[in-house]
């Protein structure tokens, strides 16, 4: 054996990544370099993963700073669809605000906002068809709202009241609706991501054209289930869209801790041979166009797509969290990709389809609608004051048939 | 002596351990800069630096797996799993690896690590922030399982766990973080500062693993409890007037069988209380031991009060939680069985 060449004596040292800014610092996003709207190319839907690696490092953007939809990804939405999209996002934001207030007033235990991320779920859902299935996280309420799920039922769920569709069993925001293509939400992170792949594999086994969409946060991509999902999706060419919502934060942990030394989350797909796109998540048009591209691809039998949506978590992680302890307050306001509602609004105004006055009016209408719905929901009960589902329902659905030991326990409980 | 909440006591234990031993490292999800979602590690990164206290990616198998590697190297990792409900992705590493490395290498490699995790319900956390998985650890040869019920024990036991040469699961009853909780959820919260067990020495001390504590002496019935249920048991004894001896097990493995046996032989009756589901819960093990050891001293069948065999429901938290009323009925029942 030959001697190894002389090495300078430098000991390894543990590298612990840190976000650019902490409380008290001036927000600084200079580290993030985003291409201009319209710059990213749009490959054909049967593109091979190895031919589009650049799109995992770029950023698909359609809405520019002047309210124009530009580039090869523009044109996926009619004027009516864009107007409906604005309304969906306004509703989602208003719904969130009502329920946050309800939690603050002690009417329920917990709540989670999707503030600043509304475009992602709202625009994505428009690329799906009835029968397709989302495997969401707790921050995709926009999927339900934009696909017409009754907001009253969402409120009933958050209140765990007598009309709660999941019978008071789950924390607020943990909705479930097979009819609306919304898989029951789990509190255990990342589990749904690989389940989405299994659902899509089943559709392929059945020779069906239905597709699945998995959802995961930036932080949760560190879980094993994320990587299992990519292997299975790649191996079996599953008709699935694997969505990573990179909202920069996982509770107090900045996205760099899960990303490591890779420049983007979209780049995770490259090693698995999965076509991967990185998309401006605050751009309703870009989200919709990327989702349609991936959905068409999946339906045509070309297999999975990984999409990283870049956005910013505008609110606290949940009502149990206080972000002022770990990030500068002004970050959201200075987020370079802006506010998804403001951006779509600017587009619609530039096209003379909308105006400031109509916007104010629409917000007021939606607010009235939410207050009305909330009153109705509260007639069905709130968490602590009730009425809640009967306590005897607690023993139901553990199994299809209640086994004798549970029958006995229910009797002992006297309910 | 300083007064501490359970959170402060746990933090103080890690602080003392890190101060004394440079091999002690602390990490977990949100455990670095922020100091953990329950703030147990607050200030440790600032004091000991990013190399000894840091944020982990959200991967429980990664956290436990890297802790095992560090322990094998010679460090003493004390890692945080954000909720016991989220330890399952790390369960393989804990039960099939950490637990058996000493055995399979005949002592060549060892895993002196601690995995801390908040356990139990009572905070409206729904089915994924409320579970009590202690029996899933107690069942595994090679793991020690600790569950303190108060700040004093939390600190003494945690330091002992960190200094222990085997892997220790340290379950922190989250409903007890800020005060003793007797199950009367409609009454104002009592803070630890008005409880004698909130008095905790500032410096180093240990409480040995494997020793139970008698919280209330009594002649009529022995209540075996741990964690949150210790205070529920005490309340039930007061409210029913049954002269119960309340034993706080403190560690499930190793178990202080002598204290249990002595008490049950004295009282002739035994009620086990835990929040985890009844079937195959730790109560099953305790009743089997009591039956093996104390059968001829029993004046009534030994019984259990436990969580129901359902997932932990959100709206029905207080129907599920085995509160003082349910424990009280069990006490009366064993007393009537003369
Ligand atoms: C298996 C598991 N580990 C830890 C947690 C606790 N937890 C809940 S949300 C969260 C952060 C998730 O961040 P991210 O994936 O970025 O999603 P975001 O909340 O930003 O939408 C953590 C650590 C959990 N729910 N499940
Ligand atoms: Mg996130």
What is the name of the CATH topology of the largest domain in chain A?
Answer: Rossmann fold
Provide mean pLDDT of chain A, rounded: 97
- How far apart lie the N and C ends of chain A? 78 Å
Strand count, sense and closure of the main sheet of chain B? 7 strands, mixed
CATH architecture descriptor text of the largest domain in chain B: 3-Layer(aba) Sandwich
Termini separation of chain B comes to: 46 Å
User: Which overall shape of chain B is indicated by the principal axes computed on the Cα atoms?
Assistant: globular
Radius of gyration of chain B: 19 Å
Helix content of chain B: 25-40%
Q: Roughly what fraction of the amino acids of chain A lie in strands?
A: 5-15%
Overall mean pLDDT score of chain B? Answer: 98
Shape of chain A: globular
Report the radius of gyration of chain A as a whole number of Å.
Answer: 23 Å
CATH topology of the largest domain in chain B: Rossmann fold
Q: What does this entry show, briefly?
A:
The complex is a heterodimer of chains A (415) and B (338). Chain A has 12 helices and 7 strands.
Structural summary, described in words:
The complex is a heterodimer of chains A (415) and B (338). Chain A has 415 residues and is of the alpha/beta class. Chain A has two domains: 49-384, Rossmann fold (3-Layer(aba) Sandwich), CATH 3.40.50.970; 391-415, no CATH class. Chain A has twelve helices and seven strands. Chain A has helices spanning 79-104, 118-124, 141-146, 151-159, 191-205, 224-235, 256-259, 284-299, 331-334, 340-350, 356-379, 404-413; strands at residues 133-135, 212-217, 240-246, 249-250, 253-254, 276-280, 305-310. In chain A, strands 1-2-3-7-6 form a five-stranded parallel sheet, sandwiched between helices. In chain A, α1 (79-104) packs across α11 (356-379), α4 crosses α11 and α5 runs parallel beside α6. Chain A is globular and about 75 Å long. The termini of chain A are far apart. The model of chain A has no long low-confidence stretch (mean pLDDT 97). Chain B is an alpha/beta fold. Chain B folds into two domains: 6-198, Thiamin diphosphate (ThDP)-binding fold, Pyr/PP domains (Rossmann fold, 3-Layer(aba) Sandwich); 213-336, Rossmann fold. In chain B, strands 2-1-3-4-6-5-10 form a seven-stranded mixed sheet, with helices on both faces. A five-stranded mixed sheet of chain B has the order 7-9-8-11-12, with helices on both faces. In chain B, α8 (229-240) packs across α12 and α9 (257-267) packs across α10 (282-294). The A-B interface holds A 14, 16, 18, 22, 109-110, 160, 164, 167-171, 174, 186-190, 219-220, 222-225, 250-253, 257-258, 260, 320-321, 325-326, 383, 388-389, 391, 394-395, 398, 405-406, 409, 413, 415 and B 29-30, 32-34, 37, 50-51, 54-62, 85-86, 88-89, 124-129, 278-279, 308-311, 313-316, 319-320. Bound molecules: thiamine diphosphate and magnesium ion (MG). Thiamine diphosphate sits between chains A (137, 139, 187-189, 217-220, 247, 249-251, 313, 317) and B (29, 58, 60, 82, 86, 89).
